[in-house]
């Protein structure tokens, strides 16, 4: 279908974008790469939105070395993240994740900030951010604040962003020496949303395991993480299956998703620890 | 507020190498702007939610979904469609290979396929069949079963790399 839009304005800079968003009020909607928002408009899942187009704000695009962390501008496109040498060296999970997101033409337009602010429970980047212990810089007319990933994702498509706030950057701690980072998912076809997926890191013997498409939001599997820290792979898989409550829908049953979670954990652990999946 | 958020947006962009200025409705998709306003009907509007790839065009050097980008967002952009890419000869070998290999029947998907395939072949000198499959997974064809399309893209990649085109 065709999009139904209540109005449109192209922001000149961040301040202008925040002013526009403030004037637009409840109908205001931030438009970045548009790869989820325009699809939602086309399907009339939302209508009459007043679009504040931030896609031309060059200051919010690109990857900077910030010492112990990377600062990734919210408007950095997926394809740019996959190709960026800083990301490949210091946050390789993000670069690997890009290959799992939709198709090339969508990766060419979609932005990391858009994916995180949209908070689709099936999306890769929110789970990566949680696994990597990222923080998000947000701006409003009353000033900036920083929100840790662990406090950001509240429910399906629901985040800690307040009305009038714009996510401007993703701060990702650099991987430690010998840190391992992997992402695994199962989708029926190349480019489809994952039926189940997970992100696993190991830093100095400590594991972090973030899940996607296995609940209403990206979540850490803390009991499985503790079992992995103790070197108990079988215990980790059992703990993971016990601590999740995945949805049943037309794509997959809850039981199948729970099974996939265990399979994916073994695959991810095998890549990190070595040995057979 | 309507002054700040107009329903009609002025855009100036380049389409197939020519400067274009227009006033477009705020919700107008890039693909509809190209097809209905500019008469460039090569790329097609299929699913209109980013899945089928029939509307794939090139914007600022990269393939994009014409249905997931608003025309208003194309202000300042450089847009190329299958018409322009045909005229410059950039994809002539791909087009010949598609014909030679029967890589199209109804042709609805072909303009999007060509833009997607050209992006791959131009960036990866010798893509494997698996890489070609992965890249074209975002472009649906309901006629050919894909094998002939992959054959055509593979042949062009090999020919451009200087190997023998089968």
UniProtKB/TrEMBL annotation, chain A:
<dbReference type="InterPro" id="IPR016166">
    <property type="entry name" value="FAD-bd_PCMH"/>
</dbReference>
<dbReference type="InterPro" id="IPR016167">
    <property type="entry name" value="FAD-bd_PCMH_sub1"/>
</dbReference>
<dbReference type="InterPro" id="IPR005107">
    <property type="entry name" value="CO_DH_flav_C"/>
</dbReference>
<keyword id="KW-0560">Oxidoreductase</keyword>
<keyword id="KW-0285">Flavoprotein</keyword>
<dbReference type="InterPro" id="IPR002346">
    <property type="entry name" value="Mopterin_DH_FAD-bd"/>
</dbReference>
<protein>
    <submittedName>
        <fullName>Carbon-monoxide dehydrogenase medium subunit</fullName>
    </submittedName>
</protein>
<dbReference type="GO" id="GO:0016491">
    <property type="term" value="F:oxidoreductase activity"/>
</dbReference>
<dbReference type="Pfam" id="PF03450">
    <property type="entry name" value="CO_deh_flav_C"/>
</dbReference>
<dbReference type="InterPro" id="IPR036683">
    <property type="entry name" value="CO_DH_flav_C_dom_sf"/>
</dbReference>
<keyword id="KW-0274">FAD</keyword>
<dbReference type="InterPro" id="IPR016169">
    <property type="entry name" value="FAD-bd_PCMH_sub2"/>
</dbReference>
<feature type="domain" description="FAD-binding PCMH-type">
    <location>
        <begin position="1"/>
        <end position="177"/>
    </location>
</feature>
<dbReference type="GO" id="GO:0071949">
    <property type="term" value="F:FAD binding"/>
</dbReference>
<dbReference type="InterPro" id="IPR036318">
    <property type="entry name" value="FAD-bd_PCMH-like_sf"/>
</dbReference>
<dbReference type="Pfam" id="PF00941">
    <property type="entry name" value="FAD_binding_5"/>
</dbReference>
<dbReference type="InterPro" id="IPR051312">
    <property type="entry name" value="Diverse_Substr_Oxidored"/>
</dbReference>
UniProtKB/TrEMBL annotation, chain B:
<dbReference type="Pfam" id="PF00111">
    <property type="entry name" value="Fer2"/>
</dbReference>
<dbReference type="InterPro" id="IPR001041">
    <property type="entry name" value="2Fe-2S_ferredoxin-type"/>
</dbReference>
<dbReference type="Pfam" id="PF01799">
    <property type="entry name" value="Fer2_2"/>
</dbReference>
<keyword id="KW-0408">Iron</keyword>
<keyword id="KW-0411">Iron-sulfur</keyword>
<dbReference type="GO" id="GO:0016491">
    <property type="term" value="F:oxidoreductase activity"/>
</dbReference>
<dbReference type="GO" id="GO:0051537">
    <property type="term" value="F:2 iron, 2 sulfur cluster binding"/>
</dbReference>
<dbReference type="GO" id="GO:0046872">
    <property type="term" value="F:metal ion binding"/>
</dbReference>
<dbReference type="InterPro" id="IPR036884">
    <property type="entry name" value="2Fe-2S-bd_dom_sf"/>
</dbReference>
<dbReference type="InterPro" id="IPR051452">
    <property type="entry name" value="Diverse_Oxidoreductases"/>
</dbReference>
<dbReference type="InterPro" id="IPR006058">
    <property type="entry name" value="2Fe2S_fd_BS"/>
</dbReference>
<keyword id="KW-0560">Oxidoreductase</keyword>
<feature type="domain" description="2Fe-2S ferredoxin-type">
    <location>
        <begin position="9"/>
        <end position="85"/>
    </location>
</feature>
<protein>
    <submittedName>
        <fullName>Carbon-monoxide dehydrogenase small subunit</fullName>
    </submittedName>
</protein>
<keyword id="KW-0001">2Fe-2S</keyword>
<dbReference type="InterPro" id="IPR002888">
    <property type="entry name" value="2Fe-2S-bd"/>
</dbReference>
<dbReference type="InterPro" id="IPR012675">
    <property type="entry name" value="Beta-grasp_dom_sf"/>
</dbReference>
<keyword id="KW-0479">Metal-binding</keyword>
<dbReference type="InterPro" id="IPR036010">
    <property type="entry name" value="2Fe-2S_ferredoxin-like_sf"/>
</dbReference>
